[in-house]
Amino acid sequence: MEQILTAEEMLFMSGNDAEPNCDKQPSFDWPAQESELQYCSLTSRGQINSHAASATSVHPLVPLLLHSDRHLPLRSPYSQPISEPVARQADPPSWTRPCYHGNSVSRQPVKKPLNAFMLYMKETRHQVLQEGREKESSAINRILGRRWHALPRSEQSRFYDLAQKERLLHMQLYPGWSARDNYGKRKRKQLAGSSSRNTTNNLKHLDERFVTLGLK
DNA sequence: CTGCCTTTGAAGATG
DNA sequence: CATCTTCAAAGGCAG
Question: C3 C1' – A89 CA distance, angstroms?
Fold first, then answer.
């Protein structure tokens, strides 16, 4: 039964429950359960060693994530039609070809799921913008980086938790997808000076941390 | 118009 | 296994 599902349709399919019905939701209360940040032994091939991927229809996290993903633009992968039913792998194995989503007219590569900091940026960026001190993204991101480090761990855990669910949902939506599929998108012209630039960035980062900690 | 900048974190690549 | 590299978002800016 070939079926085109949108994220919104899956939301309806899964009912109105905003709470995921996972029997064992990971908790990220620091520092006691810091070790649990190993994210359930996820693999990059869409395999998962926990119970989480055993759903036969729609993962319970889907509605929760869709709700939390209100910042995603309309062209976000998660807001595009999904060409394959969730958690049911069509043949041939999807990792034998590039993963795409959307219809055949406007196919776009599936992007990486957002990590905790990226989710934090999405939620907090507008605050910095409203303060009106900075308008360039690079400057805003520097501020957000400092704020991220100053964020209480309980608050950070919120985003780590969300990022884990993001990855779980991503694995369900695009089984077999690999980050390697998007490698080489950017020009590798920074190859020459990348090493020295990274070193410079690391030193700058350390410098900022010293300032933050009042050591400089 | 294209790519850089800038951040953190995840994951692939490399030695 | 440790380290390095790439890419996710964002949008102003420079070439």
Answer: 35
